[in-house]
Amino acid sequence: MATQAFILGKDAKLYYGAEEAALGAMNVIGNVRDVKVSLSADEADVTTRENGGWKGTAATLRECTIEFDMLWKPADPAFAAIRTAFLTSGLVELAALDQDRSVSGAQRPKGSFSITSFNRDESLTEGIKTNVTAKLSVFDEWVEV
């Protein structure tokens, strides 16, 4: 039997919980569509004359942004938690894992996030949805199940 050499986006899970919640106490957000996790680092110029004419760069501070869409369902507890974090400038714990947390090898960042964008999309031929941008405020851990 061939082993799977890839992970499908449909198998990834986005978990949420109260600020600083443990992964096991977090709930999966079932009302989520496309998710994009962006990880990047600022750069420091570490060029020296002895670098043979090549510019030297070192990674410094890292950042994490999670962007996702949810159907506009105000009664959904996950939707309410995200909306409340936005409206109160509070934090919500998020973990965007590439697989279910019960699967060995699942990984990704976990931490407390600020909701910096909570836009509503009312396309004529779609269900109303919100486009969410969450930016890492407090890094907890890089989850590796």
What descriptive keywords fit this protein?
mainly beta; seven-stranded antiparallel sheet
SSE layout:
Layout: E1 13-17, E2 27-28, E3 35-45, E4 57-71, H1 77-88, E5 91-97, E6 107-121, E7 129-144
Antiparallel strand pairs: 1-2, 1-5, 3-4, 4-7, 5-6, 6-7
Offer a concise description of the structure:
With 145 residues, the protein is mainly beta. It is built from one helix and seven strands; from the N terminus they run ββββαβββ.
How would you describe what is shown here?
This protein is mainly beta. The chain has a 7-stranded antiparallel beta sheet, covered by helices on one side. The model has no long low-confidence stretch (mean pLDDT 93).
Q: How many DSSP helices?
A: 1
Q: What's the CATH first level?
A: Mainly Beta
Class from helix and strand fractions:
mainly beta
Chain-averaged pLDDT: 93
**Percent of residues in beta strands?**
over 45%
Quaternary structure state of the chains depicted: single chain
What general form does the structure show?
globular
Helical fraction: under 10%
Instruction: Give the strand order of the largest sheet, numbering strands 1, 2, ... along the chain.
Output: 2-1-5-6-7-4-3
Q: Unreliable stretches, pLDDT < 50, 5 or more residues?
A: none
First-last Cα distance: 24 Å
Count structural domains. 1
Using only C-alpha atoms, the radius of gyration works out to 18 Å
Q: Order of helices and strands, N to C?
A: EEEEHEEE
Extended strand count: 7
Q: Which fold name is given in CATH as the topology?
A: Pnp Oxidase, Chain A
> Biggest sheet: strands, sense, closure?
7 strands, antiparallel
Q: Based on the structure given, which CATH architecture is correct?
A: Roll
